[in-house]
Amino acid sequence: MSGTFVGMPAFPKAAHDAVHNPVLRGNLRHATHTIRAKRARAVAELADWAALREAGRRIKDHTLRHLDRYLVQLEESVTAAGGTVHWAADADEANRIVTRLVKETGESEVVKVKSMATQEIGLNEALLDEGIRAYETDLAELIVQLGKDRPSHILVPAIHRNRGEIRDIFRSEMGGWGRPAPEGLTDTPAELAEAARLHLREKFLRAKVGISGANFMVAETGTLVVVESEGNGRMCLTLPETLISVVGIEKVVPTWRDLEVFLQTLPRSSTAERMNPYTSMWTGTTDSETADGPRAFHLVLLDNGRTDTLADQVGRQALRCIRCSACLNVCPVYERAGGHAYGSVYPGPIGAILSPQLRGTASEIDASLPYASSLCGACYEVCPVAIDIPEVLVHLRERVVQGGPAVRQGNRVVLKPAKGHAAERAAMRAARWAFAHPGALRTGQRLASRTRRLHPRTLPGPGRAWSGTRDLPAVPPEPFRDWWQRSRGGKDGVK
Amino acid sequence: MSSRDRVLGRVRRALADVTPDERPYEEAVGRDYLREHGRRTTGQTVELLAENLADYRAIVHRSDAEEMPLLVMRLLAEHGSQEVLVPPGLPPEWMSAADPVRIHDRAASTPQRLDQVDSVVTGCAVAIAETGTIVLDGSPDQGRRRISLIPDHHICVVRIPDQVVSSVPQALERLVPDRPLTWISGPSATSDIELDRVEGVHGPRKLEVILLS
Ligand code: SF4
């Protein structure tokens, strides 16, 4: 996977810098706490949340375990509906395919709806190298693009910017990309949104090529689904003559009916809404009689490390992720460090397990990511597809520390242990033992709960360096597992 | 080797641990979640739809066949609309009292042309009470996706109670996947600036829903 930010320091260094930026910390804290509280209310509205979560987990797991079959079926359905399917083993190949497709249209500009997959492969840069300008049209992505910045959150990529900064960026940069910001632009959100509307509308109305990702692809019908709020998605998906969608192979679901699960869990988990303002679904191209939407549709199926992730029996669950970003908003580490510290388009807890799997753990930043967590378990608790992020973190730490077999670019390799991790190695053995012996873990947690009043604010011995830079989390009065068992009767299918 | 074969080969090797006789899809995926949330009479379901639409800042009106033309006329006048887009199969009587010039979406109409139109009036395929969502499927009374997107003001007519369902699962059952579908919940909105919700960046900033009985 390309898209490692060049010269990116390892997580601890990057996080250290971020933690000392009070504006960033303030913006982040406000944002994550706001979404977190709203999300809890939205989820509480559905009495069957646990059952929906379990269904989501099972649909995704089943699909991943038979991924070859569903990908072939998807290819057939999309082709039958008038689309063209392309396969890309890595970022370079995907970029080459998209560049060729754009060039074949004779165009030198494209409009884009926010897509993590295209960020992951560095598509905008690859297009620019070939003289093609890609305009990001999501408001936050526009802020990031105009500010020559990087996204820092899956859902709200400009979460680290406040309104004053956004106004300054619009004033100084919009003119260079098209319609300049209106005279006397203030920093009220409504005026800023209006400026973006005017700036981008000019681009939408003349665009001949649109590029998107997708939230879901239905194997049975060949339908693609894009979930969004602003309408920029609808603009990019329906106005251009050619639409190119770049989608990770893990986004496939078997049947139309499966959408009933994710269209309930995704909006509530991500923006804390009952439903996001706009969802578009399209199946290939429409016939010439209705002529609704692009006349040409290309689907680029992207591997780029996903099959390597699939080969890892513990780590493969990361591919269930539906990119709702709920885990970011509850993560105490993300809240303080910010998204940039993760050095990847996938920040937060999911980034800490996804990036090292997609890219391998050879670089310093990737080797440090599995440690970017306090293992508090909050991410697992909110995840609408029940990805056991702590379990995968521990597994990846072990891999960094001890090395061992893995798959890279489709080939089996044996990883060497990382240097300088001797102390961690011992700690990991202990953690591994505890996770492999759930009984012992539970007993330990109960003991910790009962004695919580006696706990020190810092750790003794070698742990002091760790607790010197952070407050120890308060131990809850009752371990989560016990609370869950007691209040939900273990009915949600949690192991 | 083609990339297709390379990727599929990698997938198959990655799944070497999966036994061929695994449970089929129907068994592997339990469906013990609810088909709808709570028991409601038809009237209560329509009520909930109205509430949830309003909660997401759509403006809700009720009407019957007789009042409908006057209501549409009033809403267009309030918006100051000179031109209104209408899909080919919109019941003509809905627009019988309206003054603005009716514009049809022709193949030759450029998006720039449609951008000069003030309002659009459409029907819908189904409306979901629990989420406050209306779904358009491109039928003749709804038109192409672009007509409900470019104008700043969208008036959408929901026939109650026939077009109203309670939940997302019930809506999907009614919809046909090979039609282009647009699910709309409230007007266009963004929360990208310090998480303050602002109505409308690109889609219609004003959504008015008429519940027609
Ligand atoms: S890991 Fe789970 S909570 Fe985090 S973004 Fe993915 S689906 Fe959402």
UniProtKB/TrEMBL annotation, chain A:
GO terms for molecular function: 4 iron, 4 sulfur cluster binding; metal ion binding. GO terms for biological process: lactate metabolic process. Residues 396-486 form the Lactate utilization protein B C-terminal domain. SUPFAM superfamilies: 4Fe-4S ferredoxins (SSF54862), NagB/RpiA/CoA transferase-like (SSF100950). The keyword Flavoprotein does not apply. Residues 479-495 have a biased composition (Basic and acidic residues). Keywords: 4Fe-4S, Electron transport, Iron, Iron-sulfur, Metal-binding, Repeat, Transport. Residues 73-302 form the LUD domain. Residues 318-387 form the 4Fe-4S ferredoxin-type domain. NCBIfam families: LutB/LldF family L-lactate oxidation iron-sulfur protein. This is Iron-sulfur cluster-binding protein. It comes from Streptomyces fodineus.
Automatic annotation (TrEMBL), chain B:
It comes from Streptomyces fodineus. It comes from the Bacteria. Pfam families: LUD_dom. Residues 109-212 form the LUD domain. This is Lactate utilization protein B/C. PANTHER family: LACTATE UTILIZATION PROTEIN C. InterPro entries: FTHF_cligase-like_sf (IPR024185), LUD_dom (IPR003741), NagB/RpiA_transferase-like (IPR037171). Signal peptide: none annotated. SUPFAM superfamilies: NagB/RpiA/CoA transferase-like.
